[in-house]
């Protein structure tokens, strides 16, 4: 299977790297500056699950090659439109796009660009970031990528994809309820990135501060109420489940949005909290806590 990874950053670099390690046929679609760095230094992964350095197969948007079978779409949301345009020449009628962005708002854009049937569902749980040298730094053992057909389960193509993604050092998991999984992850990350950026702390001190757990829970409840009101297929027990997950996270665990803020980088507030607030408005649901979380992000964006 010819796999194209769009975006050789924290997520694409890591999962693409684990597939290269297994000797899958992986190419990375990158922009010029990243290409030069990767040509000079190789793609370097510093991981608690084992380091890896390799010379990646690279293309940029103007290169010519046959369409790929599978695309791991792993850019940030604020690069989505440009990335969709750059990807178009490498997508054929049989190409499957597996998006790994946090959130849900990218799905209609991808489907509009590539067709409903060519976009499957995907998400990941991982803690990676690029350091100053452009290396992928993976800081906790978590490296789960979940994927699946949104509508028709057990298709032949998903079986082929599952085979290609199996037996690597990372955890690739096929789901038969990926749409619900994506909404659940969307709820989780909206709250996780929301509280860690608002309180400028990893999850440990937040959940253990006086009233901290209660604040996290109320934000989950607010988000879940909005999602239900807009018809999202979420589980009735999801707030309890997510609170259990919050309690299981390492004391020092941060969100990727928080790490981006610490680096002074752009953030995905509009795509995550902003889009959920838009759904709240459309469904006439009050969202006082989420509004505070989003305002904090907008102030950061004003100053960055
Ligand atoms: N990192 C994490 O721990 C987690 C991240 N996520 C989600 O995964 C998504 C990706 O995040 P992450 O990997 O951290 O982001 P990064 O910023 O680390 O990587 C994104 C990469 O995309 C590249 N890129 C952007 N536009 C293009 C383009 N047109 N063509 C080629 N490459 C392009 C950027 O390259 P360039 O150098 O050219 O800018 C960059 O290397 C986000 O939605 C994030 O929320 C989800 C779970 C965990
Ligand atoms: C859930 C979490 C915190 C880790 O995968 C995440 O998605 C992120 O940091 O963006």
Describe this structure in words.
- It is a single chain.
- The protein is of the alpha/beta class and 304 residues long.
- The protein folds into two domains: 2-176, 3-Layer(aba) Sandwich (Rossmann fold); 181-303, N-(1-d-carboxylethyl)-l-norvaline Dehydrogenase, domain 2 (Orthogonal Bundle), CATH 1.10.1040.10.
- The chain is built from twelve helices and ten strands.
- It has helices at 10-21, 32-41, 80-87, 106-114, 156-164, 178-199, 203-208, 212-229, 238-248, 256-262, 270-282, 288-303, and strands spanning 2-6, 25-29, 43-47, 52-54, 57-59, 70-73, 96-99, 121-130, 136-148, 171-174.
- The strands form two sheets. It has a five-stranded parallel sheet with strand order 5-2-1-6-7, sandwiched between helices. Strands 3, 4, 8, 9 and 10 form a five-stranded mixed sheet that branches.
- β9, α5 and β10 form a beta-alpha-beta unit.
- It starts with a strand and ends with a helix.
- The mean pLDDT is 97.
- The structure holds NADPH dihydro-nicotinamide-adenine-dinucleotide phosphate and ketopantoate (KPL).
- NADPH dihydro-nicotinamide-adenine-dinucleotide phosphate (NDP) is lined by residues 6-12, 29-31, 33-34, 74-77, 79, 82-83, 86, 100-102, 124, 126-130, 256, 268.
SSE map:
Blueprint: E1 2-6, H1 10-21, E2 25-29, H2 32-41, E3 43-47, E4 52-54, E5 57-59, E6 70-73, H3 80-87, E7 96-99, H4 106-114, E8 121-130, E9 136-148, H5 156-164, E10 171-174, H6 178-199, H7 203-208, H8 212-229, H9 238-248, H10 256-262, H11 270-282, H12 288-303
Parallel strand pairs: 1-2, 1-6, 2-5, 3-9, 6-7, 9-10
Antiparallel strand pairs: 3-4, 8-9
The chain binds NADPH dihydro-nicotinamide-adenine-dinucleotide phosphate and ketopantoate.
């Amino acid at each position: 299977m010819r796999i194209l990874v769009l975006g050789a950053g924290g997520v694409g670099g890591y999962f693409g790297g684990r597939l290269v390690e297994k000797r899958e046929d992986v190419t990375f679609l990158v922009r010029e500056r990243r290409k030069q760095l990767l040509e000079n230094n190789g793609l370097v992964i510093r991981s608690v699950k084992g380091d890896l350095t390799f010379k990646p197969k690279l293309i940029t948007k103007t290169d010519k090659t046959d369409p790929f079978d599978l695309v791991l779409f792993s850019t940030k949301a604020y690069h989505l439109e440009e990335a969709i345009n750059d990807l178009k020449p490498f997508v054929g009628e049989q190409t499957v796009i597996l998006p790994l962005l946090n959130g849900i708002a990218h799905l209609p854009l991808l489907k509009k660009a590539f067709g409903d049937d060519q976009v499957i569902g995907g998400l990941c749980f991982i803690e990676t970031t690029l350091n100053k040298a452009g290396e992928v730094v993976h800081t906790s053992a978590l490296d789960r990528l979940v994927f699946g057909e949104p509508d028709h389960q057990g298709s032949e193509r998903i079986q082929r994809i599952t085979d290609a993604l199996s037996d690597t050092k990372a955890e690739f998991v096929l789901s038969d309820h990926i749409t619900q999984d994506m909404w659940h992850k969307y709820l989780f990350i909206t709250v996780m990135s929301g509280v860690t950026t608002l309180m400028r702390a990893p999850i440990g001190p937040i959940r253990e501060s006086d009233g901290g757990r209660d604040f996290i829970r109320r934000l989950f409840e607010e988000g879940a109420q909005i999602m239900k009101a807009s018809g999202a297929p979420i589980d009735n027990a999801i707030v309890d489940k997510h609170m259990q997950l919050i309690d299981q996270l390492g004391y020092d665990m941060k969100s990727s949005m928080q790490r981006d803020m610490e680096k002074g980088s752009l953030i995905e507030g509009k795509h995550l909290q902003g889009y959920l607030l838009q759904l709240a408005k459309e469904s006439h649901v009050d969202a006082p806590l989420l509004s505070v979380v989003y305002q904090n992000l907008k102030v950061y964006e004003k100053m960055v």
